[in-house]
Amino acid sequence: MAGPKIACIGVIGKADNPLHISLFPPYSDSTIEFSFLLNSCLDIFDIRCKQTSIDQDLGLLHAIDERLAAYGWLTTTGVKLLIIVDLFGQEEASAGKQAGAAINGLRDSDVKPAFRALQSAYIQLLQNPFYSPDDHVPIPGNTASSLSACQPISNKKFVADVKRIGESWAPGTSL
Amino acid sequence: MSSTKTSRIGEEIWKTRVDKVNAELVTLTYGTIVAQLCQDYDSNYQDVNKQLDKMGYNIGMRLIEEFLAKSGVGRCANFRETADMIAKVGFKIFLNVTPTVTNWTSDNTQFSLIFEDNPLADFVELPDDGRAQDELWFSNILCGVLRGSLEMVSY
Fold first, then answer.
1. Across the interface, do B128 and A154 touch by the CB < 8 Å criterion?
2. Which chain B positions have a beta carbon within 8 Å of A154's beta carbon?
3. What angle in degrees, to the nearest 10, is found between the helix axes of B3-16 and B45-71?
4. Is residue A149 over pLDDT 80?
5. C-beta neighbour count of B122 within 10 angstroms
6. Please, are residues B148 and B56 in contact by the beta-carbon 8 Å criterion?
7. B108 — alpha (psi -120 to 50), left (phi > 0) or beta?
8. How far apart are alpha carbons A65 and A118 in whole angstroms?
9. Distance (Å) from the C-alpha of residue B132 to the closest C-alpha of chain A?
10. Could you say which residues from 73 to 132 on chain A have a Cβ atom under 8 Å away from some Cβ of chain B?
11. Rounded mean pLDDT, B61-72
């Protein structure tokens, strides 16, 4: 059995600086492709923010092709959580082409638990006094040095949490 | 004084005579202090430990007055009673935890306090630099508090 699976989780800071990006098999090597996808999703965030006052849960941002769909979540502090779901899942992908018919859509509420779990992982990270959020914010002005100054999150527990969420999520499961 | 009576005193004072503050406020404040110290001392954890102990010592010297006033207990008859008092009244009323007293040496001059949960260290993950795990004593302030307060009652 194979259902939708998470292909990529991205945590993006307030200034659109990537804080953490996790890729999951079979996409583990498609770094460039996914940073491109995540970047394009950020534009959708911007557009939606302008349009209306929005909820934290942005739901489906953008169906990229018949396999991949991007979901977004925006916290009040401006941190963006992105999940790209692979609608076919891994096993069927390896099984070949007949997979197409199996899935007829994923509800927004299916992705919500994953976002909630991600958000609480992020909160736990922030509560750790040795994590300093300032290290991860680019300094306005000099772009070249500011980009090198904002490193991605290296906290092991957070990275492991994200990995766990990405690997164990499936529609209808609690995390 | 029996050990159950001691824990009853602790419970009683905790319930009726102590002002409570939000636990997260305490945890986050303490965490920030330690993180700031680490930064100020350039991650020289020996110095951080020393500083925490000093801060605790200063707290302990003052805290003992409040402890005596609130608990109204008299002088302990022996060291075992002291240990019980520290664990079941002292830690109970100020941190609402009761560490376990164990590892007594045969001559009754040394013991360990084991914390099953430590409110100061909730959420905390030590920095991942290969040294902090061994060298930084995150809750060393508690040792200082004990040192300060026991010194004031002439141990």
1. yes
2. 128
3. 90
4. no
5. 16
6. yes
7. left
8. 25
9. 11
10. 124, 127-132
11. 91
Residue A95 domain flag: no
pLDDT tens per residue across span A73-87: 888 888 899 999 988
**Is residue A68 a part of any domain in this protein?**
yes
Half-sphere exposure for A127 (CA within 13 Å, toward CB): 17
Query: Among the ranges A56-70, A97-111, B78-92, which has the highest mean pLDDT value?
Result: B78-92
pLDDT at B144 over 90: yes
Domain interval for residue A68: 5-89+106-138+145-168
Q: Is residue A98 part of a domain?
A: no
Structure-token match 């945890």, residue found: B27
Asked if A157 has any chain B CB less than 8 Å from its own CB, the reply is yes
A134 in B contact zone (CB under 8 Å): no
Chain-centroid distance, C-alpha A16: 13
Comparing CA positions, the residue from B117, B112, B89 lying closest to residue B9 is B89
**Positive or negative CA dihedral for B20, B24, B25, B27?**
positive
Does residue A174 belong to any structural domain of this protein? no
Our count of domains for chain A comes to: 1
pLDDT at A44: 87
Look up the CATH number of the domain holding residue B135. 3.30.1380.20
Q: Are A88 and A2 in contact (CB under 8 A)?
A: yes
For residues A4 and A87, the answer to whether their CB atoms sit within 8 Å is: yes
CB of A75 closer than 8 Å to CB of A56? yes
Q: If 0-12 CB within 10 Å is exposed, 13-18 middle and 19+ buried, where does residue A131 land?
A: buried
On whether the CB atoms of residues B32 and B121 are closer than 8 A, the answer is: no
Number of Cβ atoms within 10 Å of the Cβ of A148: 9
The total of structural domains in chain B comes to: 1
- A33 pLDDT exceeds 60? yes
Mention every residue, 6+ apart, whose C-beta is less than 8 A from residue A8: A21, A22, A23, A24, A27, A34, A37, A38, A82, A83, A84, A166
Give the domain CATH number at A32: 3.30.450.70
Range of the domain at B84: 3-153
